[in-house]
Amino acid sequence: LGRTLDECKLRLTDSFYQDSTADFPGRAVLDGMRLLKMSFIKLDDYKLNTAAKMILGQEKLLIGDNRFEEIERLYREDTQKLVDYNLKDAQLVFDIIQKSQALDLSIRRSQLTRMQLDRVSASIASLDSLYLRALKEKKIVAPTAIVNEREERIKGGFVMESKPGVYDTIIVLDFKSLYPSIIRTFNIDPYSFVPKERYAKIPDEEKAQLIEAPNGAHFRNDNGILPELIQHLWQQRDAAKKRKDMLASQAIKILMNSYFGILANPACRFYNLEMANAITHFGQFLNKLTAEKVREQGYEVIYGDTDSIFIDAPGKDLSSAEKLGRELEQYINAFYKAYVRKTFNRESFIELEFDRAFSKFLMPRVRHSDEGAKKRYAGLVVEDGREDIVVVGLEFVRRDWTEVAKKFQMGLLHHIFHDKPMEQYIRQFVADLRQGKMDADLIYRKAIRKGVAEYTKTTPPHIKAARKLGRELPGLIEYVMTLDGPEPLEKNSRPLDYDHYIEKQIKPIADSILSFQDKSFDDIVATHKQTDLSKFG
Known about the structure:
Radius of gyration: 28 Å
Strand order of the largest sheet: 3-11-12-13
CATH class of the largest domain: Alpha Beta
Number of strands: 16
Helix content: 40-55%
Number of domains: 4
């Protein structure tokens, strides 16, 4: 299979975290499912059948845990069907790669970084490929890559305390490529970085010329290599957008956004936690400062999350809210142009964009608390006369919740966003669930991330189901909760535990929304039961 007579190598692994690899001399071997991961295409898991269902709407010819026995039988008794099975697998992989454009994206990333096709996801090597070339032009020798094993932590992005509630109009403003913008604006760069020991020896008049980050890190006020690399990539991305080459635009975005993580990776030759933390500290500083400037304009910021802020605009219709959003965008960007020039004597590349306006918005509380949640919200958007409910972080978008919970939550959101009473909807939903009308939506799907035998301290429900199925390897397990506990879907014959689903999947979602109306799920369901009993009086 290789292009030489050298030995081909194959490394197979069952690990959830590592990929199997193949090395054929003279050829780039690309695994279809790994290409999907590298392209940031999110799937429940990265098995061929899962990808085929979600991307193509098709399935393998043989599925299930007993397919290996069937393959053995076909090998002995029906070789043509075995050939058809393998051919179908190959066709599915090819069609998935074609439809997802995962290979095309990898080719663009390879062209950008000059990395081999099978190594474009190696972000450290990708930075080395570009950065070392620039150092060479400056006649500078790069430090040797040494793995740093110190357990140091990088400061995360800023998440503002949210103000829980149901709102009429919310404006969202986003920073455009925040971390790359910070690197360009404040010259965050290994070449320009001034270590503490060197800073201590610099005369005061020279110190005054340095850029000081909020975490105390210092950088020369010149044109660093990393900012120049990002500037070049930025220009390429803008050009790609103009010619509507979205693949090139996405490839450049992935590369630019990877640079922050590389500086925080101990395996990188340029690793420096102080330098990486300078980026996140600047991000937090900008988020807080932006919220402050918005409040000065008379508007309340109800939430902020790393690179975005959510602004309450009560009494405004969507058209007025969008107009206000664009006015705030211009105001903030003009402020940063002047602020960065005055404070740091540099050009600002910080750019805030109006993202969208929600006509209705829900910011939930932390469960069993009055505090506002973080990274969890839902909102109603209207575009071209069409409504859409956007959900972030809630049960609707989480794989470890059943389909019945997701349908219930979406129904509740629809009711509260349209000011409809929810009591009858909740009662009818619970009644339908108890009557078995939603059995097909009661399936749990959960990933087994290590060998089943390795779960020794605790035995979660999905592991109990896997053991009943005889599963040993990592992967996705489907199971239901019955009166006898968790049972694997494909072998279950036990009655379903409807009380479990009501208590664990329906009630928590209901109470998270009902609490804003001073109501509870138990009261609504209990009232319904009392009404039913009164019929027998």
